[in-house]
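Bench notes, bay 3.
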Amino acid sequence: MAVKIAVIGAGSLGFTRELISDMLAVPELQNAKLAFMDINKGNLERVRKLIERDIKHNKVGATVTATTNRREALKDADYIYNLTRIGGLEGFTTDIEIPLKYGVDQCVGDTLCIGGIMYGQRNAAAILDFCKDIREVAKPNALFLSYANPMAMNTWVANTYGGVDTIGLCHGVEGGHWQIAKVIESMINKGKQEGDKGFKAVTRKDVDIICAGINHQTWYIQALYKGRDWTDRLLKGFSEHPVYSKTEKIRIDLLKRFGYYTTESNGHVSEYVPWYRKRTRDISKWISKDSWINGETGGYLRVCTEGQNWFKTDFPAVMKADPAEYAMEKRGNEHGSYIIEALETGRMYRGHFNMPNNGCITNLDDDAIVEVPCYVDGNGVSVPQVGDLPLGCAAVCAASINVQRLAVEAAVHGDVNLLKQAAMMDPLTGAVCDPKEISQMVDEMLVAQAKWLPQYRKEIPKAKARLKREKPLGTRKTQGAARKKTKSVTDMRKNAAEARRNAQSADKAAATRKKQARKRKV
């Protein structure tokens, strides 16, 4: 029988299409039953039309249904993807704007820091609802594959409290792996450019990595090229690279001080540690303004807003463009498609997934969600033991794990005290704000996000009362250290090609990386 694959939050045009294209390139999956679910009827219908057109063009047997009823989509599903953004752009805006009033300047705000903590509160209630439906109407032992942030918190909630086997999937390890390959390529060619005589290309396939840690703070503890470990040469390579030396200043500084390169982008990683964004006047020293992902204040919110606005405008042009081609040689790198392929066909796949630790990284807590190398085949998912992380790297991860644990427990039980403790223990939030400011900021965000926080329904009136009687502390009037104006549709029409690329980058540049990977035959 054909497998049924449900997609919750399927209304993301670029990401859903990439994911389905990667799956339907596999001959054994080309008769899959695809069940799309989203609360946005307009986006859902657009994605359905586009993918049905792709399926028809490729003459495969897959079928698509689209519904706003989640249980209907999940009924008898073998696999479930989570692509949701709980609270949408309305909730996301409060994650960025309210903290700015208290001096907390974030680039993304969806993983850690106060924005990520509050996003986790919104997600937890939804994740538990998803898991309840999966247990009740999906196939027994259905696998939940979650791409949604905050990755570690969501995966923690689903596995520990949701009662559903869940794997968290991210693109960060792939992106850093590609950068390491380019750094090695630059070092061995000593100034030669692609196309020059004697130039030696280095692809990701040429560099065997071991990467371990927690999501967005995973460390490349081994990088083998031609049988030699280049880890101790990466600091020199990144520091001298013509592009990365300018765009990855924070990651290079972490590499200098901890000895290992870390996965996440310069702007994103700046939010997870206390050292680079705590003083507004110093932020510009550490970031690059050429791309939002390198450190722009509220950069991800901006590109998501522009992308959503552009989606409706650009959809007719997308429908007129060439359909996607389902072919193995054109396949991208979406983990989820390879996991399902491995489980259904027995072909082995190695990737980096987010899983409960259970002794894999021996100097991190067993209950934590870690991002580590995993193997998948017809027997299931196997997680080898990594052993100890380097002590400094483990310490950085442990600080974040403590925040995640507090945030998860707060979210599941609706505990405001634990929530405020999570915010106090967060490295950047604690570096910028004192306890009174943190307490008031959390209250303000609880009130602003009340409609997505059912677990706090008894606490939100108390938060309102506190805000009413306390002296306002979030009084800063700032757009942040590196803010760019959100473009209107009229502005974006002036350069449709750029607008289309930026809309794709709202999926954390996943589509862009795949395009680069295919171009460079990675």
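Next record in the batch:
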Amino acid sequence: MLGNLLKSLLAQPLRSRRVKRAQSLLETGLSQQQSGDRENARHSFEQSLALDPDNGNAHFWLGILLAGDKQSYAAAIQHLERALTLDPDIEGGWINLGSVYYFQRDFIKAGASFRAALDAAPDSVLAHAYLGIALKETGSYDEALVHLRRAYELAPEGEGTLRNLVVTLIESDRCDEALSVAAGAVERNPSRYEAHLFHGLAHQKLHDPLRALACYDTAAALRPDDAELHDNRGTTFLELGRLPEAIECYERALALRPDYSLPAFHRALTRLLLGDYQRGWDDYELRRLDQDYPPRPGAFPRWDGAPLAGRAILVYSEQGLGDEIMFASILPEVIAAAGHCFIECEPRLEGIFRRSFPAATVYAAAPDRGLPGEIAAREIDVEIAAGSLPCFLRRSLNAFPRHDGYLKADPQRVAYWRARLAQLGPGLKVGISWTGGVRKTRRALRSIPLEQWLPILQTPGAGFVSLQYTADAGAAVAAFQEQQGVRIEHWAEAVDDYDETAALVCALDLVVSVCTAVIHLGGALGRPVWVMAPRGPEWRYGFAGDTMPWYPSVKVFRQPAFGEWHPVISSVAAELRRLAGASGS
């Protein structure tokens, strides 16, 4: 017993010296880290921990250092968690741990860490802000906004608090509240650049471009060198149909930040809108950097435009239903050139694509974008996104072939719908759609309330059938009939199944619609389609003229100025009266 006691007494000075040496190494590491010498700082922290494995501060600072490199995130988490186990009250510990989890895209664990930070400091601006951002990534917008509002309330002038709140409000379709918050920020501090920037953004998202530009002009007077501001101004000019000014803004943004992909992408869309396909397609590839772009395993080399003879190519789906249909216009050329073509498509298009492209292997995209077993077992040489095909095969207007339709509806279902339409009596049978897109894809600019359609819907010798896919379409046409006395047939079974929609479109005499997927469907089927386009339409519709290069059977009626639907409605109504009269005679 006496021997053990003596050993213990002798070990104490040794341990004390080890702890002191460990502390000295920690301080050296902090100094090296502060001076930017990361490699030696890491070495010092690791030596400190070798001497004193339970030093929470050494674990913490080594974790912070490792978090600076995504290759060492796992080790960073290990050290930060160990530090917090040893001392749960380390200042900034939970926030830093949550941040590393966030960068690993583990938003659940990130949120748990930020909640722990709030338990320790309920009024932590950073904890509220970061928790809100993590919750947004999981789709929990309502809860995210609780924390983002609190962060802004605690620090209205804090870095990022206004941006995080306004942008999240906009993304969750609360644009009116976003406008109110931004207006309040302007009133609180009229000299604050960010207040005017986000005041403009809120106006822009509410499709009030002139007020948005006024806000941006004020912001530019305060800080003319922000690339984000010029990109926002560009998209606002685009909405107004002022394309040269839009491109000028994008060029200015890129001059300020050459690595800023967003204005380069927006410039590409504007060039495509103008028909400048030679320069437009290359930067269109930047869409793949968007966080909403669907992830893909990337099992095969990307096709680079090389000859496909004797080779198998996989063309995979992307973007919206209308885009898939539009890019499918290139598939016949790919199928003819390749040894074999595999086509991934949105599940609603599987039936019609199989019927239309019998020489190819068509399969529906899985939620995880993985390959079905029978496809994975096949030999595939290259793959490409459907939206990247034009980069190789549509470099000029002359590269768009004339066609009478490349999609094929089920002939038996077409006959069924013709018989059903005949029961409505004589006259033209016209399909209509009045609402297009979602908020993010500018629904407000692409939609025309049914009440404004009256001059069209009162055309003698024409009967109307709804092709509107939104959930409230049936109730909308019923209310419209009750209020206006105009009947519009709405057959849910025809719009709930895309194969049925295709058959109905083929049975109709004409489709008249705002910019929505039914335009692409009708054009791809080679059917007569009239589209009513806003002043600054999506690039697919072009900016001038009454034709679309993608679909020879589509006629475009364009707004003469921003927001002016009346002349468009009048032109369509007059054209429809002439057509109905000719049909009747």
